[in-house]
Amino acid sequence: MATYGLIVEGVYDKEILEEFILRCANNETARSDMQIETRICGGGSKVLKQFPGFLKEFQFNYPEIRKAFVVRDSDGKNPDVLEKHFREKIAGWESPLTVEFSFIVHEVEAWLLFDEAVLSRITGRKVRKIHSPQELKDPKTKLVQILSDGKIDYTPALARQIVSSMDLDKLKNGTEVFRNFCSAIQSY
Asked: CA–CA separation, 39 vs 188, rounded Å?
C-alpha cells in the first residue's frame, strides 16, 4: 500500500490535492491501495511554522509513509525563495521520508481553471478558455465568479468534483509545477 503524507493550508487545498494525488497515481490498482494522511495548517503563513512537526508526526506515527508533500500557495512570492526557507527549516534533519515541496502560483484554484469544459458542464454555461490561469492574481475569485454565474456555490466537495473530472493533460501542458507534482507522485 502506498501511503503519502500531505501538508496543506486549508480544507479546500486538502480536497483538491488529495484528489490530484489519486488522479496522478495513474493506475486504478494503485489508487485503490493508496492512503493519504493529510494535515491542515490553517493558512499559508502557518505552513512554514507547522510542517516540521507534522513531518515528525508522520515519521514516528506513520512509518509506512515514505513520501510527504508540503504544498502551499505562493501568494505571488518567488517559489524558489519560499522553497529555500522551507528547506532551511528541516536542514540537518535525518528522516526516511522524501519531502517534496510545491508552491503554486498564486493559489491552487488556478489549477482548476485549466479545464473550461469541466467548468462549462458544472455550471451549465459556456465558460471561455482562460489563457495562463496560473498568472491570475486571484484565481479563487475568478473561479467563484464563474461558478456564481451558473448559480453554483464553491465548496470543498465541488472543488474535489472539479478535479475528479479534469483533463490532467491540459494541466500538465500548462504548468511545470503541476507536471513536477504529478511526476513526484508517480515516482513513489
From this structure: 19
Show the cell assigned to 33. Answer: 491501495
DSSP H or E segment with residue 6 = strand 2-8
Count Cα neighbours of 92 within 13 Å in the Cβ-side half-sphere: 2
Predicted TM-score (pTM) above 0.85: yes
Report residue 87 as a C-alpha cell.
528547506
114: left (phi over 0), alpha (psi -120 to 50) or beta: alpha
Per-residue model confidence as pLDDT tens digits over 104-158: 877 899 999 999 999 999 999 999 999 999 889 899 999 999 999 999 999 999 9
H/E run at residue 35:
strand 34-40
* 65-73 sheet: strands from edge to edge: 34-40, 2-8, 65-73, 98-104
Range of the domain at 37: 2-186
Closest CA to 13 of 34, 49, 41: 41
Per the structure, how many domains does the chain have?
Answer: 1
Q: What distance in Å separates the CA atoms of residue 156 and residue 27, rounded to the nearest whole number? A: 24
